[in-house]
Design a protein that fits this description.
Elements: E1 4-8, E2 17-21, E3 30-40, H1 42-48, E4 65-72, E5 84-87, E6 90-92, H2 98-101, E7 112-113, E8 125-129, E9 134-135, H3 142-145, H4 151-161, E10 167-171, H5 175-186, E11 190-195, H6 200-208, E12 213-216, E13 225-230, H7 237-244, E14 245-253, E15 274-277, H8 283-296, E16 302-306, H9 310-318, E17 325-329
Parallel strand pairs: 10-11, 10-13, 11-12, 13-14, 14-15, 16-17
Antiparallel strand pairs: 1-2, 3-4, 3-8, 3-17, 4-5, 5-9, 6-7
Bound molecules: zinc ion (2 copies).
One zinc ion (ZN) binds at residues 93-94, 97, 99-100, 108-110.
Length: 330
């Protein structure tokens, strides 16, 4: 049998290495999929850069997977060979902890994360838990759908938690923000995009996707916002975003890792402003977004890389050389 190929992280802060491995065999509750496309998320960067403490080394990163069912475990139902599926960050949950039992499986006490605590999609093949992957149908391009699986899903959870307000700020206009800007516009909401100072290209990109305003993250928007989501991993944005939202406004931190938040005066939080983080996703989030995304007409701007160029994709993302999302094509 042909081996599979994977880009493997042996140690944080070292480049991924292309390896051949035997194709894994799914257990009774798993699916073996061939990978058609896998998005590169900022969380992959945090894993590779050692910002997240518990990768299951040696590790295959990648949790924005679009693939095809190749082999089905004995106890799996509802999938057929050849079917296109999506695999997100939440790889499995325990089902019995207080969080799982109360509809908050995103906070599961014993979670498994794709591309972090189990091998992910920077590979030709991947084995996944059948209860944590999603039929994608046949509409749309594999690479353009891949970023939906994390930027879209966790972005969507952040967006929902930001509330129903009509004016929404997005700090960091990367993969997640460029998806949400399109969904928000479709829903008749107004987006204010905040980027690195002087990043004219990102600001122009945001305007091209319908942002009502785009500017530097240390600027105040032309009107106070109902809510803001921070996607950039920069703690200094927290007081800036609190300053930009109106009374009762909410600031949501959508990333898994952020630099320290600087001291700020209580005045910025006063008047019932709220500050919170979003962790992971639930299966309900996934189903909801995967239904809404095609309806909203959201289209991802992607830069395609060969699997062997995963390190290049990571460094382009790290250095902000991308608009939209990077996607590996095995
Ligand atoms: Zn649990
Ligand atoms: Zn991600």
């Amino acid at each position: 049998m042909q081996p599979m190929h994977a880009m493997v992280l042996d140690q944080p802060r070292t480049p991924l290495v292309m390896r051949e491995r035997p194709i894994p065999v799914p257990t009774d509750s798993e699916i073996l999929a061939t990978v058609s496309a896998c998005g590169v998320c900022r969380t992959d960067l945090h894993v590779v850069d050692g910002d997240l403490a518990h990768p299951n080394l040696p590790l295959v990163p990648g949790h924005e997977i679009v693939g095809r069912v190749a082999k089905i475990g004995r106890n799996v139902s509802g999938f057929v060979p050849g079917e296109r599926i999506g695999v997100p960050w939440l790889g499995a949950t325990c089902g019995v902890c207080p969080y799982c039992r109360s509809g908050r499986e995103n906070l599961c006490d014993r979670p498994v994360f794709t591309g972090y605590t189990r091998d992910g999609g920077f590979a030709t093949h991947v084995v996944v838990d059948a209860h944590h992957c999603y039929p994608l149908g046949e509409k749309g391009d594999d690479a353009e759908i891949a970023p939906w699986l994390c930027a879209g899903l966790i972005g969507w959870r952040s967006y929902r938690i930001a509330g129903e307000g009509k004016t929404l700020g997005l700090y960091g206009f990367g993969a997640a923000a460029h998806i949400l800007a399109q969904v928000a516009r479709w829903q008749g909401r107004r987006i204010f995009a905040f980027t690195r100072k002087d990043d004219q290209a990102a600001q122009e990109f945001a305007r091209s996707l319908g942002a009502a305003w785009a500017g530097s993250s240390d600027a105040l928007p032309p009107e106070p916002l109902d809510a803001a989501i921070i996607f950039a991993p920069v703690g200094a944005l927290v007081p800036l975003a609190l300053k930009a939202v109106k009374k009762g406004g909410r600031v949501v931190c959508g990333g898994i890792h952020m630099s320290d938040i600087p001291k700020f005066p209580y005045d910025l939080l006063w008047e019932e402003r709220q500050l919170m983080s979003v962790a992971n996703l639930t299966r309900a989030d996934a189903r909801e977004f995967l239904e809404i995304a095609p309806k909203s007409g959201v289209k991802c701007e992607v830069t395609r890389y060969a699997l062997a160029d995963a390190n290049l994709a990571l460094s382009d993302l790290r250095d902000g050389r991308l608009q939209g999302a990077a996607v590996l094509i095995p």
